[in-house]
Amino acid sequence: MYFYPTERVALFIDGANLYATAKTLGFDIDYKRLLGLFRQKCHLVRALYYTALAEDQEYSSIRPLIDWLDYNGYAMVTKPTKEFTDSMGRRKVKGNMDIELTVDAMKLSEQLDHIVIFTGDGDFRALVQALQEKGKRVSIVSTLQTQPPMVADELRRQSDQFIDLADLEQLICREISVQRHVSGRPTRQRPMGPEAEPARFDDDEELDDV
């Protein structure tokens, strides 16, 4: 992971995608450590976290995380999930933040030198290319250490720098979140505190009502 100390950097975090990636790797992210890591490496201008929320629920499991991030250095970008009934009569829930992240990245790019996007979604390849055409460096954070990889190959190749989340584990993981057997396989423990519950809606995932 290479950054120039004086370059202006912003983090754009696809919340659901980042959570799914870390979960697959077997660790929980300490968002305070994550912010601190980038502040050490560069001039961090802003960190934005994108997630959809189910507003019709009396209590949302992600609300403690959202509130904590909002008070601890992150700009939160949220919108309600959408519900619809498919042709089989099943209720579907969908949350997609791609447009919001793309628009914000393009708008803020004028004040930035380097854009870091936490996602493996290949749909963002066009955004990466557009930012590069504006003279910006673009890094993608995801992982190749899973089967299949969590990052789309075309997105990884388009980026100026690919950062494997697995390589950051010791720097940003919550220390109580993972224990490893001698075999090296991770076993998850329930994390404590506001980070315990992550975003539950992937960008393009439709969830059955069960």
Proportion in β-strands: 25-35%
How many structural domains? Answer: 1
Return the average pLDDT rounded to an integer: 83
- Output the helix-strand order: EHHEHEEEHEHEHEHEEE
User: What structural category arises from helix and sheet content?
Assistant: alpha/beta
**CATH topology type:** Rossmann fold
Second rung of CATH, namely the architecture:
3-Layer(aba) Sandwich
Shape: globular
Q: Can you count the beta strands?
A: 11
Tell me the name of the CATH class: Alpha Beta
The largest beta-sheet arranges its strands as 3-2-1-6-7-8
CATH superfamily: 5'-nuclease
Number of helices: 7
Task: Quote the distance from N terminus to C terminus.
Answer: 42 Å
Write up this protein.
With 210 residues, this protein is an alpha/beta fold. It has 7 helices and 11 strands. It has a single domain (8-208), classed as Rossmann fold, CATH 3.40.50.1010. Helices cover 29% and strands 27% of the residues. α5 (125-133) links the parallel β6 (114-118) and β7. It starts with 7 loop residues before the first strand and ends with a strand.
